[in-house]
Structures are given as C-alpha cells and as structure tokens.
C-alpha cells in the first residue's frame, strides 16, 4: 500500500510557516537575551569600556560583599510575605461579598480601576497622600514604616485583578454541588472551607502563583515612593539589579543579580506547583 | 516529528546568531555623522529638552551652525532631562552615540574617556573662567559651556516682612540664617526646606565650614571631619524644628518645591530657577548669596555645555559646530529666551534684562539675584564628581534622610556613604 506522503509534507510546511514567526520572536526577544544574560553574568561588563571574563566573581560579590544585596533579598521576601496574603485575602473577601451585592458590576469596576491605572501615577498620588497626612517623620521617611507603606499602596493597586479572577470563579461555582452541600447541612464557615474554597481552588492557585511572581519582581512602587530609602529599608532585588545596571553601569553584576532573582522565582514557583497537588481540585 | 524539532531549533539558533551579529558591532562605532555626495556633513547632536519651546530654541541653534558653516548640518535629537543620561550611555554602549554630546559638569567624570578634548580645536575666548573650569578634567577641556550656575538662597520676602526679620543680603552669616529659620518656623510653616541633592545640600555645607566630599584629585572623602561637622550642623536645623525634612528618599527636589509652594520660607536652589520661581511663587521672592560660614559665602558651581564624542568621523566639523553652539550669537539668543545664566560674560546682561522684562515689578529681585550669582561666582568652586556619582547621589538620598529624621548619627551615615561608594569611584 502506498503511504500518503504528500499531504503530510504539505501539512508540515504550513505548520512550519505558522510557527516560524513566534519561534523567531521568542528566539530574538526572549531566548537570546536570556542566554546573553547568562554569558554577561560571568563577565565584568561595564556599560562603557572593555569587558573581562571574571568567572563567578559577580555572584561572589553579590552574596558576600555587596552591602545591599542580602538586605534587598530580605526586603523582597518581607514584601512578598505581607503583600501576597493580604492581596489574596482582600480580593477573596470582596469577591464573596460582591457576589451577593445588588451592585456587583459597579463594585467590580470600582475595585478594578487601580489595577488598570498606570502604577507610576498611583504611586505618585499615594506619595502626595502620605505627605498630606504628615507625621514626624513621614511614614515613608521612617525605616520602621516605609516598607509597610509600600505594601499598603501595592495591595490597593494590585488586589483588583485577583478580585476579578475570584469573582468569576465564585460565579462559576457549580449550583448542584452547593445545593448538595446545603442539603447535607453545611453552612457558614464549614461551607466556605470545605465546599466553596475547594471549588474555586484552581483560581486561587493561579492568583497565588502569579501574585507571588509579581511580588518578587516589585520595583515601581518602592522606586517612586521611597527610592529604596531611608537607608536601604525598602530596597528590593529588582531595584538592586537596576542600580547595578543603570547607576553603577555594571551590566555583568546586573545580569548576575537578575539570574539569582530568576532562580528564586523558579524555585518558589516550583514549590507551589508541587504543593498544588494537595489542595487544588480540578473538575474533570 | 523529529525532523520538525530539528528545523525549529536551527531556526531559533539562526535567529540568535543574526541578533548576536547585529549587537556585536557596538562599542567602537563611528556613528553620529555622515557626509553626502555634495560634501555636506550632517552631525547628530543629542540634547535634553522638556518642551516643544525648548526644542524650538535648540533647532534655532542648530540652524545657526549651518548659517555660519554652510557645509555643516546639525541633526537634533532630544530626550527629557531625566532620561537623557540613561539614553546617552546606552547609545555609547551600542556605538550609536551622536557626534555632538551635551554634557553637565556633574556628570563629566563618567564620560571623560568618551569625549574628545577640545583644547586648541574650538574657540574658548570670552567665557567666564569658572564655566570653562567646570567642564575641564585632568587639564583637558572636554566640553564648552553654554551656561553657568551657582547656588543661591531663595527667600520669601513677604514672610520676612511679616515676621519682622531683616532680609538676607550679601555678608549674611550662618548665625543670621539659623536665627531667621527659627523665627520663621511658625504656624505649620518651616523656616527652611532641606535637601539631600548634591548641589543643594553640599553647597550650604561648603559655605558653613568649607567641607568638601571630593578631594581635588577626585577621591571621595564623605567621612572627613569637616563633612561630619557640616552635616551635624545642617541636620541640627531639623532637630531645632527650623526646617522641613524631605518626606522620602525619592523627594529629590524637596527644598525648592516646598519653598515655591509656600511651606518653607527659605531654600537653596540653583540660579537656573530664578525665572521660574519668580513666575510660579504666589509671594515676593528674594535672592541672596548663601549664608557665610567661617570662610565667607561659598557655593558650588555647575555648567552645562557641548562636547565632541570620541569616534565621531568628523571631529573637526563637530568642534566647529560646538564653537557656534556656544558662540556669542547662540548665547545672545538663549539669554534673550531666558534659558539660563550665560557662560559668556558678554551675554550675561542680556539674561538679566530678559528677567526684568518678564515682570518689571520683579526688577529689584532680579538685579539682586544676578548680583548674588556674580557674588557666588567669586566664592565659587566647581563640584568635581567621581565616576560613580549617580550611585553616590542615591546613597545621599537614602542615608542623609536618616540623619535628618534623627535615626542615624551624621558620622555613621557619612561612613556608610563613603564605604558603599568606594567601589567604582
């Protein structure tokens, strides 16, 4: 029997045609820069001047000598540890509340507004607000409260997105399951923890993962609100990378910092993916 | 299936190599100028500009070059001031730098190796010596100045009159200044608006006791004794509740903004803001030299100007263009537009007249301001900066504010700044 070679080849060529643009794009704008960053992290690579291979020196400097990197790491974790739970709790609470409200759509739009306005504008407005509130010293100038103020502004800015995700998930909860639960006598907290949360757990997982990744990359809010100060109380990892690249003009050091950040995000996300098997329920 | 994966991989790799080839050409480029078949040379000129008006002024300067040298054309590229130096360094890194580079004296050391010395190549006659000095490094003239700036004490005349405090004038001392700041701090308003910006904060410390954070051979000495004393005094204004502390480390323009908003009755600001302060403030503004400390009134000077990038394929033409851009005609034009205090002594009167004409009621204030600028030039010192001055500025913002809020001692904060900026100075 003759094998139908011709159609398959044609199919292959058209598949190739369709896939080439995105592969080229991915290669040029993602894979190449990522690969380049690995190479750069092993060089002393000044923005202006000659480069020199230095092996792991950049990493050694960041983890051993850089007075700011470990503080930035700690600040980033503190920020993430506060921002992610607050964001999820607020978004979740409001999503359940909105679900029962008569003005559901109005609330959704209102709470989503901060998420779609430019972050820089939001940060500037918050800075003016905090200035107007006053206090001696200002919340942003006090090392004990500066990071908390940054978290507060970030939660306000960020929860709207998760709220929309949760809101959709809450609306999609299967009425038959909820009805069965209420027939079995599940009410209040019991119903929330054992029935509703498991029902929306895929949305919770998605939101938790994405929010965590965003939180670990926090930059704009502290950059505008506090410029990393006072001292290095609000300096974050991405600010450290920015500082190395565009203020110290040391691109090798910036690339090394970015790679460490990448490794951390990869690790945290991997843990989340492993952990999800225990608490995320997909309806099949 | 196997073949397809191979093809995709090969395509991806090919893509990367194409990019690598394009990107690899940077660093030693000879960009920034071109000669057409008729022999006309077009030079790229990069300059900061914040508005269409400013762009129009610069276009006028570019046209002056062609008017005086018909075979040279200048192609203006602009960026907002805040992005200008980031853009410029990226262009240098990629080998896409312009031939004519706009440069500020505070950033000069970071670009010293990338600029062609202009000694003997461009006309350096007629400039205020201080302006030329500010754009010189290691004895080489790396750019020619178009303006010159000194720091002044801006004060709220109305508030002084109301409180019955004698107005600042030449010869005013640090003690007079402190006393006035205390008296004017009433009713939620402060006598003085503090700053952690280099020219603003460091000039007042310089005038206080001559403290300098950079040695004459351009090494940092933030932790030196005079610096500790000067910062202790400066921060003392906050402790005595006579000054407004910046609300955060990102409030770079704090003192001058609070002054114009009417929340601080005095502030240190540069001569470049004389015109805008007179226009924006809702009260009468006065100007005086910085209060005199142990060695008399002193201020740092800064200048901006134009230089020629190394690697420019037409350096002779570029030097000619710089001569025109900073020449008497260009400066007369800029002074008439009220751009800033001219670097050429011959044009400085034009600038004064512009400010007076803006609003004749301010004539007295303007004359006082220009007299104070000239006073400042007499006691002026160029602020030479290290290669990593951007990082130093960031550290000053982060750590001086801790001193102002009383969270850290001046000695510790200065030691931190010194230690953290030792790398790459």
TrEMBL record, chain B:
PROSITE patterns: PROKAR_LIPOPROTEIN (PS51257)
Organism: Nonomuraea montanisoli
Protein name: Sugar ABC transporter substrate-binding protein
A Pfam family that the UniProt record links to this protein: SBP_bac_1
Position of the signal peptide: 1-20
UniProt entry keywords in alphabetical sequence: Signal
SUPFAM superfamilies given in the database record: Periplasmic binding protein-like II
């Amino acid at each position: 029997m003759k094998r139908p070679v011709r159609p398959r080849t044609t199919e292959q060529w058209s598949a190739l045609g369709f896939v080439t643009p995105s592969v080229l794009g991915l290669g040029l704008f993602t894979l190449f820069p990522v690969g380049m960053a690995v190479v750069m992290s092993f060089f002393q690579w000044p923005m202006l001047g000659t480069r020199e291979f230095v092996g792991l020196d950049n990493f050694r400097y960041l983890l051993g000598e850089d007075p700011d990197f470990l503080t930035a790491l700690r600040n980033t974790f503190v920020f993430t540890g506060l921002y992610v739970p607050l964001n999820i709790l607020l978004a979740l609470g409001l999503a359940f509340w909105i679900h029962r409200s008569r003005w559901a759509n109005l609330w959704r739009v209102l709470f989503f507004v901060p998420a779609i306005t430019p972050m820089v504008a939001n940060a500037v407005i918050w800075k003016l607000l905090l200035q107007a509130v006053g206090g001696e010293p200002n919340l942003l100038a006090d090392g004990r409260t500066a990071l908390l103020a940054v978290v507060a502004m970030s939660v306000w800015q960020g929860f709207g997105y998760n709220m929309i995700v949760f809101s959709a998930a809450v609306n999609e909860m299967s009425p038959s399951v909820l009805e069965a639960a209420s027939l079995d006598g599940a009410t209040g907290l019991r119903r929330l923890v054992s029935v509703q949360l498991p029902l929306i757990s895929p949305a919770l997982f998605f939101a938790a993962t994405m929010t965590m990744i965003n939180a670990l990359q926090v930059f704009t809010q502290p950059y505008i609100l506090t410029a990393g100060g006072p001292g290095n109380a609000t300096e974050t990892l991405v600010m450290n990378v920015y500082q190395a690249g565009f203020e110290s003009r040391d691109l090798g050091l910036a690339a090394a910092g970015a790679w460490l950040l990448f490794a951390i995000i990869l690790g945290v996300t991997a843990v989340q993916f492993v952990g999800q098997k225990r608490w995320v329920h997909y309806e099949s | 299936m196997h073949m397809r994966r191979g093809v995709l991989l090969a395509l991806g790799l090919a893509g990367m190599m194409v990019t690598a080839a394009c990107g690899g050409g940077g660093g030693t480029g000879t960009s920034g100028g071109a000669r057409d078949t008729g022999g006309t040379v077009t030079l790229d000129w990069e300059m900061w500009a914040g508005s269409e008006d400013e762009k129009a002024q610069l276009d006028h300067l570019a046209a002056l070059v062609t008017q005086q040298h018909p075979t040279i054309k200048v192609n203006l590229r602009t960026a907002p001031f805040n992005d200008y130096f980031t853009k410029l360094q990226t262009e240098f890194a990629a080998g896409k730098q312009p031939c004519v580079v706009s440069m500020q004296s505070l950033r000069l050391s970071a670009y010293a190796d990338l600029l062609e010395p202009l000694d003997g190549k461009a006309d350096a006659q007629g400039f205020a010596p201080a302006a030329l000095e500010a754009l010189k490094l290691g004895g080489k003239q790396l750019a020619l100045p178009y303006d010159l700036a000194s720091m002044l004490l801006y004060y709220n005349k109305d508030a002084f009159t109301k409180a019955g405090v004698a107005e600042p004038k030449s010869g005013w001392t640090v003690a007079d200044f402190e006393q006035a700041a205390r008296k004017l701090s009433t009713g939620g308003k402060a006598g003085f608006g503090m700053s952690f910006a280099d020219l603003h904060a460091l000039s007042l410390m310089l005038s206080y006791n001559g403290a300098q954070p950079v040695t004459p051979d351009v090494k940092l000495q933030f932790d030196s004794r005079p610096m500790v004393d000067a910062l202790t005094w400066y921060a003392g204004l906050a402790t005595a509740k006579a000054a407004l502390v910046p609300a955060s480390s990102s409030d770079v323009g704090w003192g001058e903004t609070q002054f114009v908003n009417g929340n601080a009755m005095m502030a240190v600001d540069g001569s470049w803001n004389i015109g805008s302060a007179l226009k924006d403030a809702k009260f009468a503004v006065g100007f005086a030299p910085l209060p005199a400390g142990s060695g008399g009134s002193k201020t740092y000077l800064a200048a901006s100007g134009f230089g020629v990038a190394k690697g420019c394929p037409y350096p002779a033409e570029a030097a000619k263009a710089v001569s025109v851009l900073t020449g008497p005609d260009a400066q007369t034009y800029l002074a008439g537009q009220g751009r800033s205090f001219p670097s050429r002594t011959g044009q400085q009167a034009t600038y004064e007249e512009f400010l007076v004409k803006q609003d004749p009621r301010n004539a007295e204030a303007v004359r006082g301001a220009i007299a104070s600028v000239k006073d400042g030039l007499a006691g002026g010192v160029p602020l030479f900066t290290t290669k990593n001055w951007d990082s130093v500025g960031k550290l000053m913002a982060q750590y001086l504010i801790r001193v102002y809020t009383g969270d850290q001692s001046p000695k510790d904060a200065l030691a931190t700044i010194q230690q953290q900026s030792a790398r790459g100075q």
